[in-house]
Amino acid sequence: MKILFVHQNFPGQYLHLARHLGTQPGNEVVFITQRTDATLPGVKNIVYKPHRGITQNQHHYLVDTEAGLLNAQAVARVALDLKQAGFVPDVMLGHNGWGEIWYLKDVYPNTPLIGYFEFFYRFLGADVGFDQNEPQIFDNAPRIRTKNLGNLLGLDASDIGQTPTQWQRSLYPEAYQSKLLVSHEGIDTGVVKPDPNARLNLPEFGIDLTRDNEVVTYVARNLEPYRGFPQFMRSLPSILEQRPHAHVVIIGGDEVSYGHRLPDGQTHKQLMLTELGASLDMKRVHFLGKVPYSVFLKILQISRVHVYLTFPFVLSWSMLEAMSAGCVVVGSKTAPVEEVIRDGSNGLLMDFFSPTAISERVVEVLAAGRDGYADIRQNARQTIVDEYDLKTICLPAQTSLLAQVARS
């Protein structure tokens, strides 16, 4: 089979699928991307760049749309070169978020296209307006409506769509939901699993921790309000006071993935450290920044309690991986989390905006000791094994979909 992938940040959501297909005899796998520093066995990468930057001083509603259009044009040019060289894929897959798939069907009209659709923007019922302290202005509604131009272009271009959760699917217009399949990328539960002997030894941070320690963990791509970083930080003084031997391990960068940037180059980490000041015992609060996956995994395996907070937005892989590693997850009572975690059964839920509720839940788990909440830990892992396991559920579903779509 000939397969064409497109994702600007190779391999993105296609890591497991592209790696699997690349190792199968007889497959020819080509991946169009902007990334130059990563490869997978059996996968041929072709790097593209937009031919210019976005227009300066244009209407701010259209910035994302023009960026997507420039990506789409560049990808289409690469696809035209591939077609001229004799490469005609049996199936195409691509993430719609950056416009890259919009014109693929104009190059290969007879090849089925599976689009990856992550989030349809809503003025009501999702991330916008969730934080009631954010000012609500009329401009928000038309701006959000216009932001979905790329979603609508991609939905129209794709033969079928993939989205990772039921809640994310529910955000899309009802007219398009019939072509969207809920299909998660999967968690490799054979790799992400409990390890009673795990140890996190990072002398450069003064850390040497095991499961015998009271370790509170927090993970986000970047430390920002969308992932509840301010609420988590405000819960720490109480946690550290009540549990004098607890350590807090925080993973995440200082950039902004979602939401607004702070003025003058400030970071949310700086803002919270300034706000909390001496109330934090910084000898027990460890900011590790962005870490290799092997370190991330050990952090989950030594965690006594893992805190995951999010706006009603895209669900992070890290929460599912924490459950697969046997963590007690203290999560926010928000739509994407509630789809997976049942309070008191396979995790604990509380109000996103309540640092007091977060600290109370975390302290309860820490006070229960190393082997406390064993049922919740076991249930958390079993949920991932039963519903999100890569090798037995998600990867077979995706390969089956590819074969079916290619045949059709």
TrEMBL record:
Keyword Ligase set for record: no
PANTHER family xref list: GLYCOSYLTRANSFERASE WBBK-RELATED (PTHR46401)
GO biological process: lipopolysaccharide biosynthetic process
EC number(s) per entry: 2.4.1.250
Record's keyword terms, sorted: Glycosyltransferase, Transferase
Membrane-spanning ranges: none
Protein's name in the database: D-inositol 3-phosphate glycosyltransferase
Domain Glycosyl transferase family: 26-190, 212-382
GO molecular function: D-inositol-3-phosphate glycosyltransferase activity
